[in-house]
Design brief:
By secondary structure, the chain is mainly α. The chain is built from 23 helices and no strands. The two termini are about 40 Å apart.
């Protein structure tokens, strides 16, 4: 037996650690080809570690945490959003409502409402600083914690934010494992999320708060599967109060509740369990809505709703990045109308998403745990496939959902999404649509392959 065979796992861990260190402390997002090589190399090591039969579950946990801690003292190098996080947190610390003011207004007035005002504004960039914040209240609480611990140091705030995200990923590991055990699936599947280089780099490295959102979502699903639907509703509301995206999932719980009593008893009249299930469903929605409203109350003012909706609306009608079908429709608009139709297409996108959600809510079986999670996965991915803007970190949610299903196309997507960063190698940034085309060609090809494979299995069975 060769030295490499004996020590393969150790070498893979060491190589991965070195590559993560290079990513954290030496890479710039403008250096696309260097970034691409590191990314592909990390995914190669990741796949081999996942497939190793000699690494224990406990060892994989330790490795996942160590890889995250490599980033602890690094300044995010692929995103500027964290500057706005720190800004919002310090605004709250000073008793100011972050939803009601624009960072650029303070700069124009020459005011310094918080420590390092100019540093934070210059870091977040003019575009971010000219829009109202759209981060929900529990996300703002995370920012406030960073401000409480480090109110005058960007570096200190980064460390606090990063530790929050690492703790959230540990929570996802715990509850994700519990769900896999309940579904009688291999518990090692959780590492398709936890050990994924994309998750480590985009979340821990670049300080995107999807893991905190996903912690509440996965925890909520676990409690739902335990029939503790009131606690599940509160947890899902907390997830919405980190990022709004779980709002898309709400219609898809219909069949789960409509058939909930059937899973518990077959002895009652047919209409009774259905009625009771729908009563629970409406109560479930009521708890989610009430909890979300309560969490927003500390920030309430007469201007809050208008400014918050206008900020969220920008993602539908103004921004475009790494889109798939939208870019096709945009080109059709250029061909027949002569200009960019984003204003029109952006308004149609939500309606198409609602129609798709209605279809899979009522015309697809979502009665079992796996069927429900699969519906959540495809409902969200449909929205992303037609959206005008798909930032890389959005993929964290499809990745964790895929862990509990037979579909792995989100893992492939997390590999090829690096192609979207080619846009930052241009100054000013500009997308090369051939790179975007290649990204989605690979994703859709693998998705079609998985759907066909699933269909063949059903025919055989």
């Amino acid at each position: 037996m060769s030295f490499f065979t004996k020590n393969k796992d150790v070498l893979l861990i060491l190589i991965s650690a070195i590559l993560f260190f290079l990513f954290a402390y030496s890479i710039e997002r403008t250096a696309f080809y260097k970034l691409f090589i590191l990314w592909i190399s990390l995914f190669g090591c990741f796949y081999l570690l996942i497939k190793s039969n000699t690494i224990t579950f406990s060892n994989l946990i330790g490795i996942s945490i160590i890889f995250r801690l490599i980033f602890l003292f690094a300044t995010p190098n692929l995103s500027q959003d964290f500057y706005r996080f720190i800004w919002d947190g310090r605004m709250i610390l000073e008793g100011l409502n972050p939803y009601l003011s624009l960072p650029e207004s303070f700069i124009q007035q020459g005011a310094n409402p918080i420590a390092e005002t100019s540093v934070l504004y210059n870091g977040m960039g003019e575009m971010n600083g000219s829009h109202y914040t759209n981060y929900p209240p529990l996300n703002q609480l995370c920012f406030l914690i960073a401000a409480l611990v480090s109110s005058k140091s960007v570096f200190g705030s980064i460390i606090v934010l990063r530790l929050i995200i690492i703790l959230a990923d540990i929570g996802i590991l715990y509850f994700g494992k519990r769900i896999l055990e309940k579904l009688q699936l291999p518990v090692k599947n959780i590492f398709w999320y936890v050990l994924n280089p994309f998750i480590i780099i985009e979340m821990t490295g670049n300080l995107h708060f999807e893991p905190v959102m996903l912690l509440f979502l996965v925890w909520g699903l676990y409690k739902l599967f335990e029939q503790k639907w009131i606690l599940a509703a509160i947890l899902i509301a907390c997830s919405i109060s980190i990022k709004l995206i779980p709002l898309l999932f709400l219609p898809l719980f219909y069949q789960w509740f409509a058939t909930s009593n059937e899973r518990q008893s077959k002895k009652t009249l047919l209409w009774i369990p259905y009625f009771t299930g729908l009563t629970k469903l409406f109560a479930f929605y009521a708890v989610i809505i009430a909890t979300t409203i309560v969490l927003f109350l500390p920030f309430y003012s007469s201007e809050l709703i208008t400014k918050y909706i206008s900020s969220v609306g920008l993602w539908f009608g103004d921004f475009e990045f790494n889109a798939s079908f939208y870019y096709f429709f945009r080109e059709v608009g250029y061909l027949f109308r002569g200009w960019n139709e984003i204003a029109i297409i952006g308004k149609i996108t939500p309606f198409l998403t609602i129609i798709f959600l209605i279809i899979i809510t009522f015309f697809r079986k979502n009665k079992t745990e796996i069927q429900l999670i699969t519906a959540l996965l495809f409902g969200l991915c449909f929205y992303y496939f037609i959206a005008t803007t798909v930032h890389p970190w959005y993929l964290a949610t499809p990745i964790i959902l895929s862990v509990f299903t037979k579909y792995k196309f989100p893992i492939i997507w997390s590999l090829v999404v690096i192609l979207s960063y080619q846009a930052y190698s241009n100054s000013p940034w500009e997308e090369n649509l051939w790179f975007v085309f290649l990204e989605y060609l690979i994703v859709f090809s693998f998705l079609i392959y998985e759907i066909k494979k699933s269909s063949v299995k059903k025919l055989i069975i």
